[in-house]
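Private note to self, pasted from the team thread so I don't lose it. Backbone tokens:
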């Protein structure tokens, strides 16, 4: 059986480091066999990006200095899109690094919708 290539695209910044290990654990626990991870870091400096680069994570950096937040996010999302387009992705899964589903089969479930675009609703809990 041929599995479409899914690129999990994650914009992040150093403020989300508190949950990075859990995010990577969740990514590694996904049961889907043909997946890739690409991260765009937009931290205030390159320290977090350099840390990511030294690991196995493929990543790019967007310098946020002097730019409105919407511009930084637009640049980040464009880099994510370009990576998918140039690396043979069949689908792009935008996944925030501080959102945890916990379902190792979530990719297969999303693909079962057989739609060009699908989304997931998740509850926001505080505490």
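Design output:
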């Amino acid at each position: 059986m041929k599995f479409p290539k899914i690129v999990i695209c994650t914009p992040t910044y150093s403020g989300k480091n508190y949950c990075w290990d859990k995010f990577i654990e969740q990514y590694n626990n996904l049961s889907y066999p043909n997946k890739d991870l690409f991260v765009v870091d937009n931290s205030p400096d390159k320290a977090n990006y350099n840390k990511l680069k030294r690991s196995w994570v493929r990543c790019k950096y967007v310098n946020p200095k002097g730019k409105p937040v919407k511009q930084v996010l637009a640049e980040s999302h464009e880099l994510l899109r370009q990576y998918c387009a140039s690396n043979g992705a069949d689908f792009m899964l935008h996944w925030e690094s501080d959102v945890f589903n916990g379902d190792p089969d979530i990719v297969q479930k999303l693909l079962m919708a057989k739609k060009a675009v699908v989304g997931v609703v998740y509850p926001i809990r505080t505490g």
